[in-house]
Amino acid sequence: MTTLTLIGKPGCHLCDDARAVVTAVLAEFPDAALDELSILDDESLRDRWAEEIPVLLIDGAVHTYWRVDAERLRSALKAPVR
After folding, report:
1. If pLDDT is split at 50, 70 and 90, which confidence band does 80 have?
2. pTM, two decimal places
3. Digit-coded pLDDT (tens) for 34-69
4. Cβ atoms of residues 41 and 12 within 8 Å
5. Domains of the chain
6. Interstrand relation of 55-58 and 2-8 (parallel, antiparallel or unpaired)
């Protein structure tokens, strides 16, 4: 199972946009799951990512930040596991 993690915060319009793209793409990948984390709930996340949210991780590795491109995400989820 592939796990995507979206790091953001409430009230962030870029985070809302990223969530919409990720949710739409994940509808095509039933074996993938989405976790969401807020930088407001975790000081270490805030220290690391405050200037780059939203951040999207795939299985713990950074995929992108600020904007999520649907085609790039789709390609990454189709890529063979390394």
Report:
1. low
2. 0.92
3. 999 999 999 999 999 999 999 999 999 999 999 999
4. no
5. 10-78 (3.40.30.10)
6. antiparallel
Long-range contacts of 22-29 (CB under 8 A, 24+ apart): 22/56, 22/68, 22/73, 24/70, 25/70, 25/73, 25/74, 25/77, 28/74, 29/2, 29/77
What are the distances in angstroms from CA 63 to CA 11, 37, 50? Answer: 22, 15, 17
Could you give phi then psi for residue 37, rounded to 5 degrees? -125, 145
Query: Where is 14: in which H helix or E strand?
Result: helix 13-26
**For residue range 11-23, what is the model confidence (pLDDT) as tens digits?**
999 999 999 999 9
Q: Which residue's entry shows tokens 């793409």?
A: 25
Q: Reduced to 3 states, what is the DSSP secondary structure of residue 9?
A: coil
